[in-house]
Write a structure and sequence with these properties.
The protein is of the alpha+beta class. The protein is built from 4 helices and 3 strands; from the N terminus they run αββααβα.
Amino acid sequence: MENQSTRQLKVSRQLQRDLAEIFREKGTQSFGGAMITVTNVRISPDLSVARVFISIFPSEKSGEVFQIVETSAKSLRGELGKRVSKQLRIVPELVFNIDDSLDYIEKIDGLLKK
């Protein structure tokens, strides 16, 4: 992981909390019955772009749910803007990525049990 400033880490943690809350409030019905967890947020040094890593459960739905998330990125950013307007001058652009580390762990776990 590249070296992040204290400010970047604080902003990343805040964005992660706020986005997790937004996904929780929208509920599973907004995302095709899937549960979305924000596993990590990495923000650029100028705080203009946030790479948001999400985990989707059940993982079989991750493709279609990821499409829904990407399509609603603008409204998610708007919602986030309402929450962070006091702390940040600009709301970072959100770039979503699927965090499939849990699937990877599950796969390894299954292989080890054989």
